[in-house]
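Changelog-adjacent note: as of this version, every example in the card shows the full chain rather than a window. The one below runs 98 residues end to end.
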Amino acid sequence: MIRVILPPHLRTLAHVGGEVMLEVDGPITQRSVLDVLEASYPMLRGTIRDHVTQQRRAFLRFFACEEDLSHQPPDAPLPDAVASGKEPFIVIGAIAGG
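Full-length structure tokens:
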């Protein structure tokens, strides 16, 4: 099982409390995790990735194992600790302002 932590606004939208547990078949990549997340919680479609391009939204970042994975290719394998469920895949809302 893959553990996913969402930012508070997306947890509210998806009606979940803490971590989301996902069963992901095949390689564990950003794309495969987000595909299963959006299939399980359709209300999240378009909030994390653009509907058309499937690119990460500008004010969201992806982290795992204390690494920023936001600019990694979507089909790059996630760390083994994420694939084994030891560590979560974290979606963080970026902070912007002046």
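Structural remarks: The chain is about 20% helix and 20% strand.
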